[in-house]
Structure formats: C-alpha cells, structure tokens
Amino acid sequence: MKPRAALWRFVLAAFVSVILLIVIANEIRQPIDATTRTYNADFTDVSGLSDGADVRVRGVRVGKVQAITLKRSGDGRSLAGVRLTLDKRFSIVRASHLAVRYQALTGLRYIDVENPAEGDAVANRITDVPTAMTQPSFDITVLFNGLQPVLATLSPDEINTFTENAISFLQGDDRGLEPMLDSIHKLTAFVSDRQQVVATIVRNLSNLADGVKDRSQYLIQILDELELPLGQAMSVLDEFRKSQIAGSDFTRAVLRLLAAAGLRPGIDINKAFDRAFTNSYDAIEAIKRTPVIWDNIPPPVEDGAPVPCAHGRAQLPETMDVLLNGQRVVLCNK
Fold first, then answer.
1. Domain shared by 128 and 147, yes or no
2. How many structural domains is the chain composed of?
3. Half-sphere CA count of 72, side-chain side, radius 13 A
4. PANTHER family from the xrefs (predicted)?
C-alpha cells in the first residue's frame, strides 16, 4: 500500500469520525436553532435540573439552561439562580410562570414556561424572575413513603406506570384523572387493607401539594371523597366474600327448583297456566272425594286387639280346634 493512499484513507476516516462526533454531541445537547434571549430565574429547589436541560413552552423546546448557581437572598434564604435562554418569539412577563417538571423517571428535569407573551413584548418583559413566579421541583419518592410492603408485591413496570401517571397529573397533563385512578386500582388490587393504602397515598400527595399548584388540589379532594365509600365497602368485605362463595351454588339450586316446577327459559306461558289450572281442578276433585274414602276406612284397632281380616276369617274344622287345644289362632281368607 502506498503511503499517500494510506494517508488519504486516514484523513477520510478522521473526517467521518469528527462528523459523527458532532452529530452525537448535537443530539445529546439538542441545541436550539433560533435566536434566543437570556433570562435569570430564582428557584427555592432545582433538584434534578442540570446545565443543558430543556426550556419548553407547551411541550416544545425553545431554550436551554445555561448555568445553575447558589445565591443568598436578601432575607437570608439560599436560592438557586438559573440562567436560561428563551426563543425571542416568546417573552417572560408578569403573568408567566416557570416550573421545574419531570422529563423522565431517570430524574431528568426541564423548565416549563407557562403563559409566555408571544412576540417582542419589550415593555412588560421581565429578565430577572423572582421566586413568586417560579415553582420548585419536588421529590416523587415522597409519594411512596409507607408503601414499602405494597410495592414489594408490584413489578417495576407497574411502579413506573404509577409514578408516571402521578407525575403527569400533578403537573397538569391533559390526559385526565383516569390513568391515575387506574394505577391506584392496580396498586390496591391484591392488598387486604385498601383503605390504609389509599390513606397513605392521600397523605403523601398532601405533602407534595405544598410544592405543586396545577391540579393537585382537585386530586386531593377527589381522593378524599373516594376514601369514604372505599372505607364503607371494606367494612362489609366479608359479606362480599360470602356471596362469592355461596352465591353461585345457591343460584344454581334455585334454578333447578324452578326448572322442576316447569319454569324454564322459552316455555309457552299459556300452556303453563292451563296446566296449572288443570292441576288445581284435579286437586279440588280429590279433596271432594276425601269424605267417601274415609267412610270406607274402618276405625283403628285398639292396642292388644287382634287385627281383623280383610276378606273375613277362615272357618277351621273341629279337628283343628282339638289340635290347637283351644288356643286363639285366627286364619284369614285370601
């Protein structure tokens, strides 16, 4: 192989490697292809947020987090100062709100800008956002405090689904309450004391509600209202178990009795009534004949008296009387 050809191959391989490295770096960093403006925002908690995190408006990436620093406020509180960029098509104004959201269960977070002004709102633009306009991040693991025995019976996929639904609803996702209630139902499906589980979830969600302002208050109210009928149902849980054990057997026995009485699916109701009335008439006729039957029945025999013969006594010859030596032996006619 000639040295010049080998050099060209090396240069080509290096060029391709550099291009791939740039593509991978851009994919990881996901830069914004737009003119941006820089803002500074103060948060009381930015756990999980890192440099290079996304800044989004209605789910669309419109900026990046450039730096996170620790600062001291005028009243002595420790705050997190976040420097971020935002597409110039949007501006942060007094009505805007910045919140740290979950991007994935691995702990990635992003900043969600709510109610931004569209266009170049120079007069109302705010470049230094105070804590009154920001919402800190929260630790979703607080939701599972006290549920270790329950979570031990669940698979990782079920726990992840429950966590995703809780995060989505608490952060104001538009999917609604149904996924969250389905997750709670699965969480309590194989637990005997469901009321305690729901009460624990409500208590943990109440702790999270202090840092979440979207729909958490509605969720807490709904879960509190659901806890009352659930507790009443748990008080009569044994009755449900009894009906489950004896209900089907009892129903089958009743169906057999009804079938024996002639009540079957698809019967001719007219014929059934005719047969019932005919049987009633026959029963009445049988009752009418009862006195005649009693007239032909002799009175019962007294204790110790010989039983009478139905066809009369047989007349014994005199020789038999001698042989029996006067004993009272009765022979009946056939």
1. no
2. 2
3. 2
4. INTERMEMBRANE PHOSPHOLIPID TRANSPORT SYSTEM BINDING PROTEIN MLAD-RELATED (PTHR33371), MCE-FAMILY PROTEIN MCE1B (PTHR33371:SF17)
